[in-house]
Structure formats: C-alpha cells, structure tokens
Amino acid sequence: MKALKILAIVLVLYVGIVAAFESLLGYIQPTQGSTLVITTFDRDGTKHDRVVARLEADGKLYVAANHWPRAWYRRALENPEVKVTTGGETHDYRAVPVTGEEHDRVDDHNKLPVFFRILTGFPPRYFVRLDPR
To answer: Which domains does the chain have, with CATH numbers?
Structure first.
C-alpha cells in the first residue's frame, strides 16, 4: 500500500511538472531564427498566432505539434489556408498533414532530445508541411 502511495505522488508530481513546463513555453517561447509564427483561423475567421519551431527536410518547410496543447494544429487541419511570418515577412501557405513515409523521414531529420520528450510528457508528434500558395 505504501508503494502505491509513493507511486501516486510521483505520478502527480510528474504531471504537475509537465503541465508547468507546457504552460511556461506558451509565455517564454523564443522567436529566433529557428521559429516562425503560424496564423490559423477559426471557422468564424478569428485568427490565432502561435510560435512554432521551423523544421526543414528535403528542401520543404514543416512545423510539428510536439506538445499536448495543439489547438493551432487542429485549426490548421480544419482550415488549411494559413499565414506564416518569418524574418518579418508574412506569406500565405497551405498546411498539409504529413503521414506515413514522409512523417518518418521528417521525424528522422528533426529528432527531439529525450529530455525534452520527458518534460513534455511524451505527446504524439504530428507534422504539417507548409506549401506556398
């Protein structure tokens, strides 16, 4: 019984650490050369900006949903016409979900450190290819 209590405490602490880390990233997300701002739109046209890591593979531009909070990703799937701001310039793109062999290839080119995966609670990782319009 004591072991179960200790395990429960450790689990609650871990969930708390993951929640705190994910929450802090929303406030302290860097906006340097390795990031971009993706603007997604709700069904009613409301725009939402999110800073995400800029990924490249095979000369194409990608972004990944690496965290549990991923409203931007769901909006991009519902309305794939997005805007991307990088280097102070904004352009129109089409967000294309990445699956299968392409997903595996992009993941292999853009591995996440194990420590980062631990801090984020091992969320599933999804990619979107950004095709210029």
So the answer is: 2-132 (2.30.110.10)
